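G., before I forget:
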Amino acid sequence: MTVILTPPLMTFQPYLDAVSKQINHTTYGEQPTELYEPIRYIMSLGGKRLRPLLTVLAAHLFTDDWRKALKPSVAVEVFHNFTLMHDDIMDQAPLRRGKPTVHEKWNANIAILSGDVMLVNAYELLLETAPQHLPRVIRRFNRTAAEVCEGQQWDMNFELRSDVTQDEYINMIRLKTSVLLGFAMELGAIIGGADDTQAQALYDAGVNMGLGFQLKDDILDVYGDPEKFGKQVGGDIIANKKTFLLIEALQQATGDTQQALNHWLSLPQGTYDTATKVAAVTDIYNQLGIDKIAEANAEAYFAKGFEALEKLPVPKDRKQPLLDFAAYLAGRES
Amino acid sequence: MTVILTPPLMTFQPYLDAVSKQINHTTYGEQPTELYEPIRYIMSLGGKRLRPLLTVLAAHLFTDDWRKALKPSVAVEVFHNFTLMHDDIMDQAPLRRGKPTVHEKWNANIAILSGDVMLVNAYELLLETAPQHLPRVIRRFNRTAAEVCEGQQWDMNFELRSDVTQDEYINMIRLKTSVLLGFAMELGAIIGGADDTQAQALYDAGVNMGLGFQLKDDILDVYGDPEKFGKQVGGDIIANKKTFLLIEALQQATGDTQQALNHWLSLPQGTYDTATKVAAVTDIYNQLGIDKIAEANAEAYFAKGFEALEKLPVPKDRKQPLLDFAAYLAGRES
């Protein structure tokens, strides 16, 4: 994978439109409104819908009738938003996609309970897969869901530690982020009629793309264009968040650079100018070539994902929308 | 159903022993320990294990091989304990079965996330049912799980209202407590090979027993023997909790009695002697005959449950353990 110089063809757009429409038509329940209104709210905040899109594109590899993956694909998006609703309580996050989080707009109790119902709703949407696939789909979803929770717990544990290694970090983001992209693709493959080997190949491809996706996120948080990036650029630096970049920098830095980095990390919130800290730490990253190391790692994960997709014994034209979407993810600037 | 004068035969004991053993042998996951230790903790606090017992006893109605219901029966107990873990956060409860709650012993974030994994674990345990039953079992469990969350939300809503009717209260406890007892019995019936009509009859019986069970709980909270009742007697009165008894009293009371009751309800926490309040409100209940009305209602629900069980076209000896357990629940003093 090298840098994308031209935007990939948007051959995946019709599938994304179908996914968005399906999400907009999904209902969750009515009464009591305190329970169901937050679900409609968080689902309406948008997002890239990349997980259900991966499900549908993976199904399309194996069947013309990819539309039968639409309803189950929404399960993945609902599950993802359930994790956001609960993570936002744990992280005390005030905003999600620029809007108040559910525990801010309502309260923490409502965010806990609405999230619980969303997890149940995700299982209900998975019931839209054919009965012969159901035991396998539920078993794989259960494993994935537990792993996502494990990833979140590791992430919280890491906040209290200063000796997190790159291997530990990669394992954490694999659990917290990547396995769900892997499951999204595996789900589509199963629905499309893939055999076990093919389904596993798509899972692996999804996990690798997920790792590349998260590293890209870490990079964009520092190097993203504020005009295009949805979040505050430098947010991770201000919060001392242990990202791939910071862990790598802590490992590489020596002498004065090490001292300067540790100095910025040691300052209590509110005792420094945030823009100065972001500029200083970014400068350290640049000196150490952290941006290039991170880019190379992200690209390597995406390349592994691409390779797995290209190896699949499936006609090229069936693959094109998925390959284009993978290229879009790898080259994204927001 | 009249008052039980002699304790029912404990013909259900071997089934309860098998359920307890199965729960003790259930594993939930290992790493990170912060995620899985709270699950082992709350599951080790005990409880009556009445829900999985109902599953196994219902299966026994239809099959000699009731042991195949053991693993799935644990799903119901794990789900129940998941709701306790999350409800305790919402209710800021310090104690559960006399021991610190999970959010007290660890913290709220860990209680949220461990609870989430417990819900996933419940689905994993449901996968132990035969594949041909799985779509139906998952669909019915989803409905039940969503309803239990709805019940909890209504319960929280009712705390902020002073005009809750008895119909609303019964509907709330139906959702929060009874449907899970109904599902527990329906699950056992499905696993045992019952047809749809029989499974529905067991669900209905379970719901009615659940309503009787919760009214009995409301009664025991006021009239229970402190030596036998696990919780503080009078806790609901101190907290102004809108139980069947209080709602009935508010509806029945007139004149001085009404004034006295409203006076006790209006006093802010800490401005009165709790024992005096408990004695005074209990006295009002006695004057109005609330205890007898509540007992009659609890008995009527249990009677409906019994009737449904007795009508089932199943040999009497198959029913005996379940009938004995139902009698035990109806007559319980703790």
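Strands of chain B lie at 95-96, 99-100. Chain B has one domain: 13-331.

More on Monday.
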